[in-house]
Amino acid sequence: MVTTVRKILQKNLKRAELIEFIKSRLSDAVVGEVTINTSPIGTTVTIYCMKPGLVIGTRGRTIKALQEEVEKRFGLENVQISVSEIEVPELNPDVMARRITQAMSGGVRWRRVAFWALRRIMDAGAIGAEIVISGKLTSVRARSEKFAAGLIPKSGEYARYVRTAVAHIQLPTGIFGVKVKIYPPSAPLPERVYIAESAETSGKQEG
Question: Rounded to whole angstroms, how far apart are CA atoms 192 and 190?
Answer without folding.
Answer: 6
